[in-house]
Amino acid sequence: MNVENGRSIAVLVADSHPILRRGLVEIINHETDMRVVAEASDGIEAVTRYKECRPDVVLVDLAMPELEGVEVIRTIKSSHSEARIIILTTYDTDEDIELGLKAGAQAYLLKDITGENLVACIRDVMRGRKRVAPAIAEKLVDRVSRIQITAREFRVLHLLAAGKANKEIAVTLGISDATVKAHITNLFDKLNVSSRTEAIVAAIKRGLVRVT
Length: 212
Description:
Elements: E1 9-14, H1 18-29, E2 34-40, H2 43-53, E3 57-60, H3 69-79, E4 84-89, H4 94-103, E5 107-110, H5 115-126, E6 131-132, H6 134-145, H7 151-161, H8 166-173, H9 177-191, H10 196-205
C-alpha cells in the first residue's frame, strides 16, 4: 500500500496512553490517504500487531511498557528491514535520539507536533524520506559539532553526577587529585558550564547521564 498508487497508507499506532492514542487514530483516519489498521498499548503488543498486520508505517513512543520503544524498533527491523518507523515521543535527550535513529527509525518527532505535520511526516516516510523535529535536528548538529568527551572524562562525569567528591573520584579511578581537577576543568569547557551542578544538569539534558 502506498500514497503513490492511490491506496491508503496502513498505520500502526503504538502508545501506552489511551487518550493520546485515540487522538492519533482520529487524526490519521481523518485523512483520505491513510488509515489506522492496528493499535498497541505496550511494546510486546506492538511487535505482535506489526507481524499480524504488516502496516506501511509504524508510530511508536519510546516510553512503552513490557518492551521499550527502541527495542520494539530493533525487534521489528531485525526481521523486517523494510519497516518504516516513526518515533513520536516526549524524550529529547541526545542518548534517546541516537538510540532511536540507530535502531532504524526513519523519523523522530516530539509530541508537541501538529496533526498537519504528523500526517505530512507519515507521507514523507512512506516515500522513503527521513524526518526529524526541528529541536531534534538542532541537537543532532550540536552532537556532531561539539568536542567529544573522552572515556575517562565520561567516568568522571558519572561519578560527579553520583555526588562523589574529587578525592573519592581519584580513589575510584586510581588517579591523582590533580588529574581529577584537570578532567573536571575539561568537562566544564566542553559542556560550556562553570560549576559541578551546571555540569550535571547539562549532562542530564544531553542524555550523557540519567537520573535514577
